[in-house]
Automatic annotation (TrEMBL):
Protein name: tRNA uridine(34) hydroxylase
Domain of life from the UniProt record: Bacteria
Similarity comment: family membership: Belongs to the TrhO family.
tRNA processing in keyword set: yes
A Gene Ontology BP annotation from the UniProt entry: tRNA modification
Catalytic activity: uridine(34) in tRNA + AH2 + O2 = 5-hydroxyuridine(34) in tRNA + A + H2O
Keyword tRNA processing: yes
SUPFAM superfamilies, alphabetized: Rhodanese/Cell cycle control phosphatase
Residue ranges of domain Rhodanese in the record: 124-220
PROSITE patterns reported for this sequence: RHODANESE_3
């Protein structure tokens, strides 16, 4: 059965001379075709995840592929039973994925792409170290066994983590294999390692989602679920909606076990963030949750509802 909403996760590093001029036409086209989600535009390219009717997604993707350098724009599609996003955001940014390293050029300096079908062989090599470039809450719900977890709160923290740990990680002949959800963070993290003088740097082409799509379950080395930045929250190894829900207070995934904790209150707190809220904030969150529930009961969209980027 074909579900009514199609999602499209996409990115392309390219060189836009005037990103601001692109914003209006892209936003207008999305609104015309009832496409929601987030698109980020910068001088270095475009990145985002959108969802909507299949024909609308097709029209927007076709237009994006007419932009300079986006002819081969890579897109990962999925289906959803309900609208995964509550609003449309087309934003101008300094970077389409924020690392805070101004001189990196992923177009020129990214590491060697490794197809999903070849990934297992690379990461099984004894001279290969495997680094998960995602943030701590993403790693917590699933990763490749043996992967190094930098325990970063933000991708901006990755350069400092690597510089602090380089001496214990990198030796002569070390191969560094890196991965992330859809591939975009590794475009920058591998370029960063190369700028730091690391020669043999590889990354999983298309990221975890591409690996789960291309590698049969019988051969897969993936363990757990994969966090995604839409209302599905996480996906299973067969790319079906996972078991996690989103804490609306801290924007982190909450497992089935964590939802049995007395510290979990839907829409208000989870075990990770309960101690961070005072009574006043808890009351505001409770009121927002009540308003969202009323809007759903009326079949409306609550204007305050949003999903983290």
């Amino acid at each position: 059965m074909t579900l009514p909403f199609r999602t499209a996760a996409l990115y392309q590093f390219t060189r836009f001379t005037d990103p601001a001029a692109l914003r209006g036409p892209i936003e207008a086209l999305c609104r015309t075709h009832a496409v929601q989600g987030t698109l980020l535009i910068a001088h270095e390219g475009i990145n985002g995840t959108i969802a909507g009717p299949p024909d609308g997604i097709g029209a927007v993707v076709a237009y994006l592929r007419t932009l300079p350098g986006c002819e081969s724009l890579g897109v990962k599609y999925a289906w959803a039973p309900a609208e995964p996003f509550h609003r449309l955001k087309v934003r101008l940014k300094r970077e389409i994925v924020t690392m805070g390293q101004a001189d990196l050029d992923p177009l020129r300096d990214a590491g060697t792409y490794v197809a999903p079908e070849d990934w297992n062989e690379l990461i099984s090599h004894p001279d290969t170290i495997l680094i998960d470039t995602r943030n701590d809450y993403e790693v917590a719900i699933g990763t490749f066994p043996g992967a190094i977890d930098p325990a970063t709160k933000s991708f901006r923290d990755f350069p400092a983590w690597f510089r602090a740990n380089r001496d214990r990680l990198i030796a002569d002949g070390t191969k560094v294999a890196m991965f992330c959800t859809g591939g975009i963070r590794c475009e920058k993290s591998t370029a960063f390692l190369k700028s730091e003088g690391v020669d043999e740097v590889y990354h999983l082409e298309g990221g975890i989602l591409n690996y789960l799509e291309k590698v049969p379950a019988s051969d897969s080395k993936w363990s757990g679920e994969c966090f995604v930045f839409d209302e599905r929250v996480s996906v299973t190894p067969d790319l079906q909606p996972g078991s996690h829900v989103l804490c609306r207070a801290c924007r982190r995934p909450v497992s089935e076990t964590a939802r049995t904790s007395p510290l979990y209150q839907e829409g208000i707190s989870c075990p990770d963030c309960h101690a961070d809220h005072d009574d006043d904030k808890r009351a505001r969150l409770a009121e927002r949750h009540r308003q969202e529930a009323l809007a759903r009961a009326r079949g409306e969209r609550h204007v305050g509802a949003k999903m983290g980027d």
